[in-house]
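Quick start: what a row looks like.
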Amino acid sequence: MRKILLLALLPLVSGGCVRTVASIVTAPVKVVSKGIDWTTTSQSEADRNYGKKMRKEEEREGKERRKWQEQCRKNPDCPPYDGFRAGRN
């Protein structure tokens, strides 16, 4: 009877200890998952990076086209634009 009573009271007495043990046990899993999060790229990050890259390429294309147009105004016998185009490698 005493053993049953002690077992029934054990969770009440060791409430803080159980949480501490659970935190210690789950800590390595949390560390590994955080490391994996840092090393992988999510889809939203990939989309954001691609958008940034395309904006830079479009800006470069715009600058080159404006330069080409300025040269064409000075020399009307210029060939069609054959410079950098965004989105093509």
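That is the whole record. The first helix runs from residue 2 to 13. The mean pLDDT is 81.
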